[in-house]
Amino acid sequence: MKLARFDPAAFLASHWQQAALQIRNPWDAWQCPIEPDELAGLACEPEVESRLVEQSGPEIWALEQGPFDAERFAALGAKPWTLLVQAVDHHVPEVAQLLSQFRFIPNWRIDDVMVSFASTGGGVGPHFDQYDVFLIQGRGHRRWRIGQRCDDTTPLRAHADLKLLADFEERAVYDLGPGDILYVPPGVAHDGVALDDDCMTLSIGFRAPSRAELITGWSDHVLDELGEDDRYGDPMLPLQDQPGEITEAALARLQAMVLERLADRAGFARWFAAFNSAPKYPDMDWSSEEPLTLEEVREAAQGGTVLRNFASRFVFVRENDAVLLFVDGEMRECRGPAARFAEALCAKHEIALGEIDDDMLALLLDLANRGAIAFAGED
Ligand code: SIN
Ligand code: CO
How is the chain split into domains, by residue range? Predict the structure, then answer.
């Protein structure tokens, strides 16, 4: 299934991070990649994050966290409800394939695919998100209202978990059917209500670090490498008139001690790539109890296909002529053909293997034993 009638470059120039956009069924042949029963099944799994939102009155929403017992779904009454399941792409290959159509945004900005299923009238209420989202109507119909721009100061209702907006200033209304997409930039109020009992929405979610996360994470990392003897010193201390003054010159040297270390670009690139590729659900690795041997990997790789774990995060940064590949927070330095291979691995979930040298083989062995890849034909 392809985004056949969609121009990524035009979209990035005119809408990404800027304005909401309704995209009428841009697919070559839309087919919802997941069935409602399959979604309900996932919501019963302990390692899957899920929520159920039930609406008991026009303005009253109740939230339950999963995992759920299958009987819980049978007991759902006439009140509008929505089941929401996080990171469905990690579990359902067809949903991961859908996500791969959105790789015109780089890997490091992509979070996961949340899928919701609602009965008529169901929804999570008016809210805004910190991140961009493509809301794809999988099946059934949903009415989306787009509202005002919001931020940290926007008043919310008392319900702490749902973070619902106290006021909603409607700016546009879109009725979506199967295959239609609504793009919503960060901070824009939205409210989706199911128009029928077969309403499934797939949210392609993104992420962006806050300045606070970057400063805390990077400075913590720098701190780990600093010793007690790396300290202010002042040989040739000039005589000063006022003993109480911390002079400009001293302040400049003090601040330089901080900024010099924080400005280390190569160190920052390595730290950020590791931080960004840390897995959201680390328990989802594919490693087998018994580690594979080099010979086993050589055999599996011979004319075989390598599959990337859908829950693993693959990114790379360049450092001189090397490609530093980061998978689930771990770095591998790759050169030559292995570097080209690392780039290709970051671009695709599935790669047919051709000629393999020893460096590539070592990389495959390492990734397989960490559960980040598997070979086609294996379980
Ligand atoms: C939904 O799928 O019902 C909610 C998605 C969203 O508003 O982000
Ligand atoms: Co939302």
Answer: 8-206, 210-233+244-263, 294-375
Tokens (6 digits) for 301: 């790789």
CB distance 276 to 315 below 8 Å: yes
Ligand 1 touching residue 192 (CB < 6 A): yes
What is the CATH architecture assignment of 294-375? 3-Layer(aba) Sandwich (3.40)
CATH number of 8-206: 2.60.120.650
Cα 198 from chain centroid (whole Å)? 27
Q: What's the rounded Cα separation, in Å, for the pair 84 and 167?
A: 24
Mean residue pLDDT of the chain comes to 95
124 Cβ below 6 A of ligand 1: yes
- pLDDT at residue number 377: 67
Same topology, domains 8-206 and 294-375? Answer is no
Which of 225-229, 254-258, 274-278, 281-285 is predicted least confidently? 281-285
Atom of ligand 1 nearest to the CA of 133: 8
Tens of pLDDT, residue by residue over 142-186, are: 999 999 999 999 999 987 778 999 999 999 999 999 999 999 999
Strands (E), 271-354: 305-308, 314-319, 322-327, 330-334, 350-352
Neighbours of 163 (CB within 10 A): 14
Q: Among 6, 12, 222, which Cα is nearest to 109's?
A: 12
Task: Indicate whether residue 123 lines ligand 1 (CB < 6 A).
Answer: yes
Give the three-state DSSP class for 213: helix
| Residue corresponding to tokens 């990077």 | 218
User: If you measure from the C-alpha of residue 115 to the centroid of ligand 1, how many angstroms do you get, rounded to a whole number?
Assistant: 8
How many angstroms does the Cα of residue 116 sit away from the middle of ligand 1? 7
Q: Tell me, in angstroms, the distance from the centre of ligand 2 to residue 88's CA.
A: 16
* Residue whose CA lies nearest to ligand 1 atom number 6: 203
